[in-house]
Amino acid sequence: xxxxxxxxxxxxxxLARRLDEADLGFDTSVLELRLARDAGNVALLSALAEAYxxxxxxxxxxxxxxxxxxxxxxxPVFRYNLACSLVLTGDLDGACxxxxxxxxxxYRDLEHMEQDADLRRLRKDARYAELLERLARxxxxxxx
Length: 144
Prior knowledge:
Elements: H1 3-37, H2 42-54, H3 58-71, H4 76-88, H5 92-104, H6 110-115, H7 120-123, H8 127-141
Helix pairs in contact: 1-2, 2-3, 3-4, 4-5, 5-8
């Protein structure tokens, strides 16, 4: 491959990345405007929390995940997403607690948890092995 082809390929990748970022920024702006008009809309809160995380606006995503848990404290997916935000903001103890609670509430997608990039930092931590043992006990004790 010639240097011209390499630089053209690199330029295309760079452009594609910038377009994706612009699209996400636009999506985030639209979600923020809609949420300003409908502050209690759980679907909007959830979508915006995800958009913030994709933009690496982890503190903003965490704040929305906390709102979602406050709105629906027994929703296991909201607890799971809160755990992800806690990992991304550096609170591994809080993340472990949120993951345990998500499993107590019925979350069972361990395969997703093992692959989720948001949890990468936790999986590298010594607490993760203990967490897996506790999750297995919860699953076993609840009969599923």
